[in-house]
């Protein structure tokens, strides 16, 4: 019951937040000197009448305040509107969401599966050569810009011919059998996943290592060790449970990142995901599409945080009691 | 010591890794390149096509060499992909290309001569204002319904003339506000009548013809519905087509796959129905660089090569299985435009700083700028020699090109003379001032991200700085730039490109007529029409009005020659160069006869894959 009330309260709190986010984003996009009709205007075969019709269709002939109210009204009703090309925004997003989810969940899954154990390992073997090597590698991972790494890998793919040059499926995808499709997608995913994995792995591993090191330094761990508890038990039963809390918060942020995609990597690899769609939309000020994606990002972030907080309530008894007192 | 060791190993790792991946292109010298241009010649298109009637069906027979059936050709389109598969709604090149494959027009252009020749029509006659179209008998839509005059009448009357979808076809055929009429004479004959003699009308007959039984329900639901009709969400099996290929799969942001139409009306000399190819694939790639990589990786079969990439492709050609072809000057033109707008906006503020206004509206100043530009240098350094200097608004492959307008080399002496004549002077540091003592300084813009234009910008800046001008070169985002050009008019000079038709200069009326929507160099808003029209702008208006209504080529040419002469002399837009069109296509494809007007795959139904190569020959 307590938890339900808490969730309800959190959800109610998001409403003014979303309102402010939408207001700020809408005005920033609309006030930028980017003309959504630029391409049409530069086309000699498009007439003034057509342009005027387009302007009316997109609502550009109305004052910006009215434009916002119109947008907000339909957004509340669940209608995301149309893109500047007249396609349904919801449909466009629907086309891309599965692709982005495929990429991001895969990356998150891999980084957590690899990053957490590596973090623990580095903390346990603190200052050993292994820890140092991991430090060097993760530093490289953190320092290398994603798009640069992506470009390098792409050139690698061209030179060796081992991997397809971007995209998600090959030209003959529709003719393949199940395993053919599977291996086709796998081949296309390896490079983008490698880029995103390398970059997020570094952060996660460092975080885990740092947390665990802090905990290992605390009195109760020393006490457990002094009591003669086996090192395995010390780490996995006592230290890890406490070190994992900040990681759960981090997981909430990762959840928010599920749909925001990785625009630069997607762009370099021509990956048909949300990031690329939205990047292109921002470039031509395709307001409905940009707004939909920004709102989606905001909602996912709020949702991610909520989930993380709830998870913390379950994992950490301290927060549970603290919540009741407050 | 230890840290140094780590750092060293990291650096070593990076060097090895990067070194394996990147190999610098060998720089080519100028003379070598210009010699190479000549060697990239292409075969001439030797094919004749004639109508033959077999079992009551009027086929179009080609005498191109007979090939084998089957196989796939993978092409590409740059950008976000198509926005619609409705040929009447398309407003961008990608959508047009991808929908026009499926719908033939009544006429098409001869890829060699540029004349209009029958396609879906069996033949046509032109008598003054009347255009009589005879349709082929026995042709069928892909769902088996016959193609008749009703479809043509419906397409023209109910879609085009009634203003459904993209109205640009309708706008382009209006003569003084009046539209042509269309009449069905019998089941296979249609007559069009233009209100006045109007030469560009013939070109508009290449517009696709729609199947009435599919489009009529959509038209009945009104314009708003029609705008979303046959959007990219359409299920491919709902399409009813007349063209050589039919869409079978569309994957957003990845590709569109087409399958051959087994009932197409073009046959080979043995009477077999074309096209040869089984599938045609268009990959949707985000940018040019990715397209090049995909071609190099073997994922693409055909590609347009930028001048800057030609040396790289030449190098690869030695080991790879494609050939390069030089199709001659492209329809694109690169120009430097000067803002000669001298009007004020609604708040009474001049669009252009009055000091600069004086320079820009001075013909001597513009001519001085022109003579200071080193076009040869741009051609060699930006386009690697794969371009030709340009001095006229018509592209070099235009059939209306005014050949009497001679090219001229860079001439700084003449520039300085002209500037002096208008009272400009340079101080002892070589800086240029106008006669009121203002430093000559202005902004030059282009759209950021277009590396070719950015490179030209740098060269223009250097060339003009030789005259003592201070040029602030500023590439800005495309949409913002267009906003400046067409809405706020607050720019000085800009480098842009336009694509015109090499066959029909009337398409340029939006640019050249004083009230045109793209009259960038002296743009007038709707409330400014006919205000401050310069004498030579008036003459341009006159020329474009009369050029369109004159009927014979020679009469039209006189008007369009004069318009080019005016631009050549007045220089509101200073033309720089026209790139050469270089293409690469894999050697396994036969019947490849690229032309300047048609491109590489204009005869897509005749292209086939050589069996020997298909069986693993490199």
How would you sum up this structure, described in words?
Chain A is mostly helical. Chain A is 78% helix and 0% strand. Chain A contains 15 helices and no strands. The mean pLDDT of chain A is 84. With 618 residues, chain B is of the alpha+beta class. Chain B folds into two domains: 40-305 and 587-609, D-Maltodextrin-Binding Protein, domain 2; 333-579, Dipeptide-binding Protein, Domain 3 (Dipeptide-binding Protein, domain 3), CATH 3.10.105. In chain B, strand 10 (245-251) and strand 11 form a beta hairpin. In chain B, helix 4 runs parallel beside helix 7, helix 12 (363-372) packs antiparallel against helix 14 (412-421) and helix 18 (535-549) packs antiparallel against helix 19. The longest helix of chain B has 20 residues, at 2-21. The model of chain B is unreliable at 19-35 and 613-618 (pLDDT under 50). The interface between A and B is large, with 58 and 64 residues.
